[in-house]
Every structure is written in C-alpha cells, then in structure tokens.
Here is the input.
Amino acid sequence: MGDHCTNNPPLGWSKHNDEIVKLGDTEVYISKPADTDVGTRLLVLLTNGRPFAKAGYFVVMPDLLVNHGDPAPNTVNVATTTEEEFSLLDQIKMRAVEGNALKAVKEQYGDKEYRTSHGIHVVGYCFGGKYALRLAATDEVSAVAVAHGTMISREDFVGVKNPVTFACVENDPLFPDEIREEGLKLLQERNIEHELKVYKGVPHGFAVYGSYPDHHIKLSQEKVFDQFVEFISNYV
Here is the structure.
C-alpha cells in the first residue's frame, strides 16, 4: 500500500453509533446511521474509508489487517512477496470476509439493523479493493466500489458479475494502466455495468478518510465519496 493509505491521521469516530464487536473469530467494526431502521442497507467496508453510515448505510468493516495472517503488503515489502505468499494471503482474508464475517453479520443483524433483501454493497480502499472485486463475483453482492486498488490482477476481474465503480489515480504504479484497461475490457465484453474516474494531482491512498492539509486532496476525497454513494445506491 502507499504512504497515504496508512500514514494520515484518522478522524474521530462516534462513540454513540460506532463499536467494535467479535463475530465468530473476526473482529468487526460496526457503524450505524443515526436514524437506523430495518430499511437500511448493508455496506461492507474493506479497510478505512469515509463514514458511509452518514449516508444511511449500516456499515461493517472486518479486520483484514491483524487477525488473519500477515498485514496487507505495503510499498516496502510488495516487491519481496512471492506469488505463493500472496495466494495464501488472499485465501485467508477472503475466508475471513466471505465465509466468516459476512455470515456472522447476517445472522446477528440481518433484518434487524438492515434489510437483507437489499443485498450487500461493498467498498474497498487500497488493498481492500482487491477483495471488493472478488466479492463482486458472489450472488449476495449488489454493487461494488473500488478506490485506488492495490495489487489488483487481471484474474480479479474475471468472475465479476455485479456493477462496479472505480476511483483511480493517474499514473498509479500500484494499479497500472495496463491492468486497469485489460480489466475494463473484460467487463465491457461481458456487459457488466461499470464506471471509472481518474483523479489527477493526488497520491495513491488519497481517498482514505483522514486529516489532510491539502485542499485539492480533500476536495477529491469528497468527490470520490459522492461518486461511490451515487453509484452503489442505484442497486439493490
């Protein structure tokens, strides 16, 4: 991951509507909208992003970085991580999200805090974007959003069957243009609804919700949040 994915000071969280709970063997961050009701939609957040609860979503964020194998790779150790190690890491984290956390969330909160008939919306930032695309290949997911994905490969696009929106960084070495273009071609060939916006003059990781002194980054971050909410809210 890039420096901006992890090194910017996070903004505070609401003690009234946010909590961390243990579901199965996975710690899950929960954020509820202020006016929650059974009509609320479920949003799975993969790594830190904007507070989607303010947009009316019941938000769950499974712990991908601590409890399940090694942390997500960053720009320092990506080059030394072997393909076999990435494959094992992927399997561990996908089981943590799809096979463990999501099942537990549905059992605990389904049709109590959110309406299961609305499906699941998934937003993935940085390394979480890779898993968001993987979840876009599952039946329960309604729509997916990916912000400056990290280590995304052509194979991550192959099984996608649900609508997806991308917020990308210009000339991003962590999500190269050739991979992005090949992935879009696969989506187009299979008539998968999608959109892609490229943000200029911002670093990889800019959309992660944090405290930024740069006005342009702040403005671009807001645009990504609006892009995601507008796109995924069209699909239930």
Summary: The two ends are 31 Å apart (CA to CA).
